[in-house]
Write a structure and sequence with these properties.
This protein is of the alpha/beta class. It has a single domain, classed as Ureohydrolase domain (Arginase, Chain A), CATH 3.40.800. The protein is 37% helix and 18% strand. The chain has 11 helices and 10 strands. Strands 1, 2, 3, 4, 5, 6, 7, 8, 9 and 10 form a 10-stranded mixed sheet that branches. β6, α6 and β7 (184-190) form a beta-alpha-beta unit.
């Protein structure tokens, strides 16, 4: 299930005529191993799976998302000074063995956090969230209050017979219940037309905070206030960004394109809000599907989010 990083795939221009630091990300990224990554580093980890999307009857192709995101990230300018950036390789879903892959991802996320690193998991279907989130919960046992922020058009609170891309946060809620710990969940950008009444009822029963896409667009100051208030109540934050939260003209390469969505500049501002709190302990980005990604637009937005997180976080 594990595929080691291949640094030869990180490619981009090299500036030789600039004074000062002219490096780009492909020039600074290193292969990760737990003996070379000293101190606080950022570690990218690919999640090559769309098995959860298939089970959820979505359009597959997100398993190739990690490669597309790396390609979009590689040529971006490096402005993070002495921060260390590592490629931790890929976890690859073999057949329908999603549950086993979740276990592998959870363990790796927990280990990276415990070693003092920031894991950024790049997917892949939004089934990635259960693996990342369970790793965060394991790294910070109760009574630590873990805030889960999902920027997404979907609540992902389904309760199907087997896990899929729409059940991740319901599955994390079940984990919290088993451990007798609070489930603190904020969904930003949910679409009223994409979530059934049963899902809204489940969100209410779980005491989740859900802010719809139209509210985010029309009540920006209040949205930021609600986001800050949620962050203030938590000890640590796990952030998940599903690229289908964006309008389809901005992010066409997803499993379920949005009819309205939240514009990218607002999504990026929300990400910055989380990073500036200095409480972010893990990030994943889901649903980059290169099969439908005209001009690599969705991958480029995902790369911009990662670039922003790397360069804005406090070490």
């Amino acid at each position: 299930m594990f595929k080691p990083s291949d640094l030869s795939l990180w490619k981009g221009r090299i500036d030789t005529d600039s004074a000062g630091d002219a490096r780009r990300i492909h020039e600074v990224v290193r292969a990760y191993d737990d003996t070379s990554a000293a101190g606080s580093s950022v570690v990218l980890l690919g999640f090559c799976s769309d098995e959860g999307v298939r089970r959820n009857l979505g359009r597959v192709g997100a398993k190739d998302g990690p490669a597309a995101i790396r390609a979009a990230l590689a040529p971006l300018a490096w402005r993070a000074g002495d921060t260390l950036l590592f490629d931790g390789g890929d976890l690859v879903c073999e057949g329908d063995q999603l549950e086993q892959l979740h276990g592998e991802l959870s363990t790796r996320v927990q280990e990276l956090i415990s070693a003092g690193h920031l894991p950024i998991v790049i997917g892949g279907g939004h089934e990635v969230a259960f693996g990342t989130g369970s790793g965060v919960l394991a790294a910070f046992p109760a009574p630590a209050k873990i805030g889960i922020i999902n920027i997404d058009a979907h609540l992902d609170l389904r309760t199907p017979p087997t896990r899929n891309s729409g059940s991740s946060f319901a599955d994390l809620a079940a984990c919290c219940a088993e451990d007798d710990r609070e489930f603190s969940y904020l969904c930003l950008g949910a679409s009223e037309s994409s979530n059934s009444e049963a899902l809204w009822s489940r969100a209410k029963s779980l005491q989740a905070t859900c802010i719809i896409d139209l509210f985010v667009r029309e009540n920006w100051a209040k949205t930021r206030e609600l986001c800050r208030s949620f962050i203030d109540r938590c000890d640590r934050i796990y952030l998940s960004v599903d690229m289908d939260v964006h309008p389809s003209h901005e992010a066409p390469g997803v499993s379920a394109p949005a009819s309205l969505g939240v514009p990218f500049d607002k999504v990026l501002s929300l990400v910055q809000e989380v990073v500036s709190s200095n409480k972010l302990v893990a990030l994943d980005i889901a649903e980059v599907n290169p099969r439908f990604d005209s001009d690599h637009r969705t991958a480029r937005l995902a790369a911009k989010i990662i670039h922003t997180v790397i360069h804005a976080r406090k070490i």
